[in-house]
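Question thread 4412

I'm putting together a teaching handout and wanted feedback from people who do this every day. The idea is simple: show students a protein as raw sequence, then show them the structure tokens that encode its fold, then repeat with a second protein so they can compare. Below is the first pair exactly as I plan to print it.
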Amino acid sequence: MSKSRQVVTRRAFAAGSLATVAALGASPLLALQSPATMGKPVGADVEAANLKVVDAFCAAFKKKDMDTIASLLADDCTYRLLQNRPPVVGKAAVVETIKGFVARGIEFKVLKSVVLGPVVLNERDDIVAAAAGQPAMTIRVNTGMFYVQHGKIVEWTDYVLP
């Protein structure tokens, strides 16, 4: 019994791939673009503005300024308390989730920030106010990741090593 082997040329493979992309509703030209041409470059002024948004957001926690916190969140924002937690979706739900932290007292002490276009990463210590008879607790956030668009935080996830 012999096995038949079908040979596919590069041209046939490329034509089939472009047809698949088109069938999925995308422009075949999109498949030919290099990654460098798919996005717009972000200027240093936009990166500085994005950092300013995240810095103001983090500073507002120590001041217990829920109005500023809420004003810096996009209506459709997503928040993950930790990388392995399900996301909280929507401004109202995110504000409700963090209200308790703010009421108790928490400071985001930013140690280092890096801005890459719309993404702001910070390393920080989150200092949670002491409960009755307990010392304050410091949580090292290895990476706080914020995606900023049009001056609002669209996504926020904190990554903490166990």
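The second pair follows. I'd like the answer to focus on this one:
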Amino acid sequence: MKKFLMFAFAMMTIGATAQEKIKQERGASVKENAEARKNTSPKEVADIQTERMAKYLELSEDQKKQVHKILAEQSALKKAKLQNIEDSKNASPVSKPQLSEEQKNKLKAERKAQKQATDTKLKEILTEEQFAKYQTMRERQDKRKKHMIEKKATDKKE
């Protein structure tokens, strides 16, 4: 009986250690990815997004050029807004100011308006079938983002 209990304890310890190691590795890769995204230029982001969309939606060369232009504009705006937020966070080194609910809601509304404007522009370029596939792709991405945000919130609680 003693051997069994020692074996069970050893297995639990090994399992807990392995889980901690996996969490640490995931955390490191998430941080590395975030840093890589910060250092990516708007043109590079637009290139990647355009290629992904071209492959998924089977875009023509003309459509690719038009979509790239829209995505480059969108990416540049997003990068500028993120830079403004980062600058305001770094402005006071003593305490990092938190956004008020009003500010958060304003940012959400701006992002939603930007998404709608982009969708309107893309709808003019894409065929009905391509736009339907695009919307499906966008919904999937939104669900994935929402899931990651929820997961990040639960991980912080632990």
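Top answer:
Good format. For the second protein you could add a caption like this: The CA atoms of residues 126 and 146 lie 26 Å apart. The helical segments are 2-38, 42-57, 61-91, 101-125, 128-157.
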